Amino acid sequence: MQKFPSSVLTAAFVVAPFATASFAQERTGWGTQIEGLTVYQGETDLDEGGSFTSSRTFVRGSAIYRFGKDTSAGVSVSVGAFDYDFDDVSARPWKDIRDIRVSVPTRFRVSDTATAFISPQVRWDYESGADKSEGNTYGIFAGVAWKFSDTLTIGPAFGAYSQLEESGADVFPALLVDWDINQRWNLNTGAGLGATGGPGLTLGYDVTDSSRVSLSVRSESVRFRLDDNGLAPNGVGEDESIPVVISYQYEPNPGTLFSAFIGAEFDGELTLDDASGNQISRQSYDTAPLAGLALRLRF
């Protein structure tokens, strides 16, 4: 049976950081990968009145060099957009958000059964028209996983990222898991293309050698710098939610993966802070439907 990647589509994302490095293990030397993603969130009501829809589009290119013995290093660059459409223009907290990310994923063996992963990242999240440098944050995702058997790899991990207008870093624990429960069922964790801070979990079932269905859940949060107009000039906006999706992946060959998914975002919340970090508003929004498509090409 054809083995799917250790991380599959989870809400607004495709390939986990831990798995991104692992694709380079297929051969010694350079491996390149291009990913594209588009997600649409349907209309949802805000608890203080009004409603909004949103969409996300991301493109990422990665180049990984494998040195051998589970050791690899490379660079990944992504460009994305979060586009919001609020029905009440006069009370609109923000419009279109831009997202740029550069990461350096590195993987190396620390023992006969353990492999470590570290991926420092620099991000720019800012509203269109704002100063890009004012939306700059940075952080790291790292962990180590032990291969206990041919079917189970597991280990601890953590993420630590700076936050706009907040002291200290946003630190969260995570668990690296790649567990082949049997020949068709797999449980794994990870983030990926278009994903924001927070851990995720995916349960997948191989329908055929080239297709899979999966159920994914994830905690998401993104903060971004606002422009000098609007309700909070030069302030900070934040969108938090827990997306849950069912996805279908089709891999006609090892170099191509198509994905489609539907689901919903739960426990959504929009926060607006002024330029001094004082909270202006915090609004919850109802469960929001979402759907999307993704494509990954390996060379």
Alpha carbon gyration radius: 19 Å
Helix content: under 10%
- Biggest sheet features: 17 strands, antiparallel
Give the N-terminus to C-terminus distance in angstroms: 22 Å
Q: Count up the helices.
A: 1
Mean pLDDT: 86
Low-confidence stretches: 1-25
In terms of DSSP E residues, the strand content is over 45%
Quickly give the structural class: mainly beta
Number of strands: 17
What is the succession of H and E elements?
HEEEEEEEEEEEEEEEEE
Report the principal-axis shape. Answer: globular
Describe the structure.
This protein is mainly beta and 299 residues long. 2% of the residues lie in helices and 66% in strands. It has one helix at residues 17-22; strands at residues 29-45, 51-68, 71-86, 96-103, 106-109, 114-127, 136-147, 152-163, 166-180, 185-189, 200-206, 211-218, 220-225, 236-253, 256-273, 279-285, 288-298. The protein has a 17-stranded antiparallel sheet that branches. It is globular. The model is unreliable at 1-25 (pLDDT under 50).
